Amino acid sequence: MGNAMRGVIAFFPSERIQRFLVGDLKEMPLDRTLDLSSRQLRRMPPVACAFTELVKLYLSDNNLSSLPPELQDLRNLQLLALDFNCFEELPAAVCKLPNLIILYLGNNRLHRLPEELRKLKELNTLWLETNYFSVFPKVVCDLPNLKTLHLGYNQIRSVPSELSRLEELRSIWLAGNELQEFPSVLLGMHLITVIDVDRNKIRFFPGLSHLEGLKLVIYDHNPCINAPVVAEGVRRVGRWADSADEELEDVGSRVVSESTVDVSEGKCEEHHNT
To answer: Can you tell me the mean pLDDT for 99-118?
Structure first.
């Protein structure tokens, strides 16, 4: 692709461009997988919607901002990749794919999700990283089979208590957001295996040793004064990760005490100056 491709696009009429970029799509792929990634497409080829037996459709890394209503005819589709495009809203047709299991929407311009998303009852993997979410999209809490949720690199400040409804959730990725506190709802989700809160603004971590299913917690690049205490065998990625839990508890308690004293003295000094 690159400058040569842009030159071709500028020279040929739109229909010929489409055929040039997509190729000769006449027959259903034998593996029921259609990969149209990185073709600089501005619209989805209509012929793709005729392949009703498709199981996987990759449209990643294009210039798409909409999808045709006919997409809903792909009722056997299990994987849809729409990442690295220009979507500001999720096309309605996506919410009408009853067998969808994996949905990639990262690196777009999404700031909300439609309520119709809850119709995707079979969805177990949802990637929404690097979008424009400032509020956690609560509609994802109505996806009963969701196992993996990636909401990293948005501007989310808190995680709602409704997340506890996701009884099948096993991994949640929240790196690169604006979390001021560790999401308390996760403390009651005993089957969760992976928690990623890297690159947030969390200052204190509660103990996580009671989470029986936890295997990995990533908490690096936070202004924290302690590390989360975890059960034996749980991997930690972050400051003090190699320290013993007993040492972490002592360090955390000491730093909390010192911070409390510093804050108290600071308030007294401020009052005195006033």
So the answer is: 98
